[in-house]
Amino acid sequence: MSKSNKFGDEFRQYSLLGQKLSKKLEYLPDYACNTNALKLVVLDVYLEGLDPQKVPKELVEGVKKIRLLMKRQGEAKWIMRADILTNLALKVGQSQKRFDPEAE
After folding, report:
1. What is the mean pLDDT of residues 33-39?
2. What span, in angstroms and rounded, lies between the C-alpha atoms of 2 and 12?
3. Which of 4, 46, 64, 74 has the fewest Cβ atoms within 10 angstroms?
4. Residue 101 above 70 pLDDT?
5. Cα separation of 43 and 48, whole Å?
6. pLDDT per residue as tens digits for the range 37-70
7. What angle do CA 66, 27, 33 make, to 5 degrees?
8. Sequence-separated (6 or more) residues with CB below 8 Å from residue 94
């Protein structure tokens, strides 16, 4: 097996693993590439602990808005710190093939 084939196979395995994990734990993509990931965890656990029967709807909606703000701010801060090629790729759009583990 050539060295480039081995690298491609390893990259493919890591990509599949990441996709499977993010399918299983649906909140994970929000934490990836986000400088506010730890704050999002706190807000998520707080929201999970709220009883919709006992807490005013306005409070829940307010916390969800704060979470969205923290998520987007963290993504923006991460992008600001990323290298120029990453920023260019984000600007241009997705060009990498996405692996479908169920098609395997």
Report:
1. 97
2. 15
3. 4
4. no
5. 9
6. 999 999 999 999 999 899 999 999 999 999 999 9
7. 80
8. none
